[in-house]
C-alpha cells in the first residue's frame, strides 16, 4: 500500500498511477514530491547501535518529509528487524537475499530518495560485502537519477581495492554527512569529491521509553557479596578476532553468519579469542576485588554474547557479574542499562555514544577508527583511548587499562567536563542532520514539510 500527501482530484490514496509509473521506472519526479524513501543499512542484526540509529533516522525523515512518506527498510533478517520496527501502511520491511545485487537494484528503482543509514558505511572492518552493498546502492540510485545521501556515517580503514571502489562510487553520492570530522578527513584523503559535511551520530537524538528507566537494576538478579557495593562497572565487549566476515561457498557451521558469509576463524584466531576472554575475566575480577564493584557485561550486538559468556566462565567471582544482551533487551532498555552504570569500559562505539547523555565516566578499548574518531572529537583520545590493534602484542596493554580504570574510578569527575561538553556539542550536531537533509532537498527543488 502506498500513502502520499493527499491532493484534490487524485484518487487511489493520492497517487496518480501514471505519475507513479514515471517515478518508479525512470527515476523522474516532475512535481518534485518525495513519496518514497529507502533506508539502506545494517538492519535486523540485533545490534543496539543500528537500532537506535534507524529509529532516530525514521523520526528525522518524517519530520522533514511528513508522516505520510512511504519508508522502505531492506533487511537480511526480517524476524529480528520486526522486534523493534513495526510495519504499517507507511513503513515497509523488505527482505533481501544474501546475494543482494538484483534485489537492491529493484528496490532502489522504486524510490524517490535513498539514504545510506549504516554508521560503518565506508569501511571494511566487518566485511567487504557490507561496504559493497552500500556502494552498489549508490551506483543504482545514480543510474536511475535518484538522489542518494549518506546519512551521519563513518569512514575507516580499507583495503587497496576497496579504497579504489569507494573513490569511484562514493563520488556518485549527492551528499555525504559524516558523524565525525575524522571520517570526513579520511574520505577527502581518499579522493572522494562528493559534497561532504560532518555532524554527529543520529543515535545522540534517540529517546528511550520512560518505563525502561533503570532497567539494569530491575534485572540485576545476582547474589552480590557483602564485600561489594551496589556500584556497577559496565564492560561493552567485542571479539576482535571474528572479523572480518569473509565470503565462502562453504565452511564450518559454527562459523556461519549467513550464507555465504563466514566469520574469520583459524586456530590462531580461536586461541586469541580465548586469551581475550581470559584477560577480560582477570580485569573484571580485579575490579571486583580492588574497587568492590559489580560487573555488567553489555553485548551491544548478539554476536558479542559468546565472548561475554566465556569471560564469565573464566571469572573467580561470576556471581558478581551479569550479561545484558541486545538479543534480550530492546534498544531503549539497552540504552537505559548503559546510562545506569557507574563507570563504562567500552569496545563498542554506540555504547560510548548512548551513555554520554548520563555523563558516564568511560574508557575505550578500540580496534577500528570509529571510537578513535569519536574520542578525538570529544578530546578524550589521548588519555582515555587504548588502541587494541597497535598494543595487543604488548603485555602493557592490560596494565595500561588497569591503571586508567583505577585512576578514573578514584576520580570519576576527571573527564566529566570533556564528556559534558562533548555530549552537548554532539547532540546539537546530531540535530543538524535533519536540518541539512531539509536544506539539501529544498536546494534541489524538492517539496518538504515546512
What do you see in this structure?
The chain has 450 residues and is of the alpha/beta class. The protein is built from 17 helices and 16 strands. The protein folds into 2 domains: 17-202 and 426-443, Rossmann fold; 210-414, Glycogen Phosphorylase B (Rossmann fold, 3-Layer(aba) Sandwich), CATH 3.40.50.2000. Helices cover 43% and strands 15% of the residues. The strands form 3 sheets. Strands 3-2-1-4-5-6-7 form a 7-stranded parallel sheet, sandwiched between helices. A 6-stranded parallel sheet has the order 13-12-8-14-15-16, sandwiched between helices. Helix 9 crosses helix 10 and helix 9 (267-291) packs parallel to helix 16. 46% of the residues are buried.
- Work out the helix count: 17
Give the DSSP E fraction (strand runs of 2 or more residues).
Answer: 15-25%
CA-CA gap between termini = 25 Å
What percent of the residues sit in helical stretches (DSSP H or I)? 40-55%
CATH fold name of the largest domain? Rossmann fold
Keywords: Transferase
Protein name: Polysaccharide pyruvyl transferase family protein
GO molecular function, one term: transferase activity
Organism: Methanobacterium spitsbergense
Report a brief summary of the structure.
The chain has 450 residues and is α/β, with parallel strands linked by helices. Helix content is 43%, strand content 15%. It has a 7-stranded parallel sheet with strand order 3-2-1-4-5-6-7, sandwiched between helices.
Question: What keyword list fits this structure?
Answer:
17 helices, Rossmann fold, 450 residues, 7-stranded parallel beta sheet, 2 domains, alpha/beta
Amino acid at each position: 500500500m502506498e500513502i502520499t500527501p493527499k491532493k484534490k482530484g487524485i484518487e487511489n490514496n493520492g497517487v496518480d498511477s501514471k505519475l507513479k509509473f514515471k517515478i518508479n521506472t525512470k527515476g523522474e519526479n516532475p512535481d518534485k514530491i518525495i513519496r518514497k524513501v529507502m533506508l539502506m543499512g545494517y538492519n535486523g542484526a540485533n545490534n543496539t547501535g543500528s537500532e537506535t540509529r534507524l529509529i532516530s533516522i525514521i523520526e528525522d525523515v518524517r519530520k522533514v518529509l511528513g508522516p505520510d512518506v512511504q519508508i522502505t527498510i531492506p533487511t537480511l533478517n526480517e524476524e529480528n528487524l520486526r522486534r523493534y520496527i513495526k510495519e504499517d501502511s507507511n513503513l515497509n520491511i523488505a527482505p533481501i537475499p544474501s546475494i543482494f545485487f538484483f534485489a537492491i537494484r529493484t528496490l532502489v528503482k522504486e524510490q524517490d530518495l535513498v539514504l545510506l543509514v549504516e554508521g560503518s558505511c565506508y569501511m571494511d572492518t566487518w566485511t567487504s560485502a557490507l561496504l559493497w552493498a552500500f556502494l552498489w546502492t549508490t551506483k543504482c540510485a545514480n543510474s536511475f537519477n535518484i538522489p542518494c545521501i549518506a546519512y551521519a556515517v563513518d569512514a575507516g580503514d580499507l583495503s587497496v581495492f576497496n579504497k579504489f571502489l569507494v573513490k569511484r562510487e562514493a563520488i556518485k553520492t549527492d551528499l555525504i554527512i559524516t558523524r565525525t570530522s575524522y571520517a570526513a578527513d579520511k574520505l577527502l584523503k581518499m579522493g572522494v569529491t562528493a559534497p561532504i559535511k560532518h555532524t554527529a551520530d543520529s543515535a545522540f537524538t534517540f529517546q528511550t521509553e520512560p518505563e525502561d528507566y533503570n532497567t539494569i537494576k530491575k534485572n540485576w538478579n545476582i547474589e552480590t557479596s557483602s564485600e561489594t557495593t551496589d556500584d556497577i562497572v559496565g564492560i561493552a565487549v567485542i571479539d576482535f578476532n571474528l572479523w572480518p566476515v569473509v565470503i565462502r561457498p562453504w565452511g564450518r557451521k559454527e562459523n556461519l553468519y549467513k550464507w555465504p558469509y563466514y566469520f574469520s576463524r583459524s586456530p590462531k584466531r580461536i586461541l586469541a579469542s580465548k586469551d581475550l576472554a581470559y584477560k577480560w575475566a582477570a580485569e573484571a575480577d580485579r575490579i571486583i576485588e580492588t574497587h568492590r564493584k559489580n560487573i555488567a557485561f553489555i553485548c551491544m550486538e548478539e554476536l558479542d554474547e559468546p565472548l561475554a559468556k566465556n569471560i564469565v566462565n573464566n571469572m573467580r567471582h561470576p556471581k558478581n557479574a551479569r550479561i545484558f544482551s541486545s538479543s534480550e533487551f530492546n534498544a531503549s532498555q539497552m540504552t537505559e542499562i548503559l546510562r545506569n552504570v557507574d563507570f563504562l569500559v567500552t569496545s563498542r562505539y554506540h555504547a560510548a555514544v548512548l551513555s554520554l547523555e548520563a555523563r558516564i565516566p568511560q574508557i575505550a578499548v578500540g580496534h577500528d577508527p570509529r571510537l578513535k574518531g569519536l574520542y578525538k572529537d570529544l578530546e578524550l583520545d589521548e588519555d582515555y583511548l587504548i588502541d587494541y590493534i597497535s598494543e595487543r602484542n604488548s603485555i602493557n596493554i592490560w596494565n595500561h587499562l588497569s591503571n586508567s580504570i583505577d585512576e578514573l574510578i578514584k576520580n570519576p569527575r576527571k573527564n566529566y567536563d570533556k564528556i559534558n561538553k562533548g555530549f552537548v556539542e554532539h547532540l546539537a550536531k546530531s540535530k543538524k542532520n535533519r536540518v541539512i537533509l531539509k536544506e539539501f532537498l529544498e536546494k534541489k527543488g524538492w517539496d518538504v514539510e515546512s
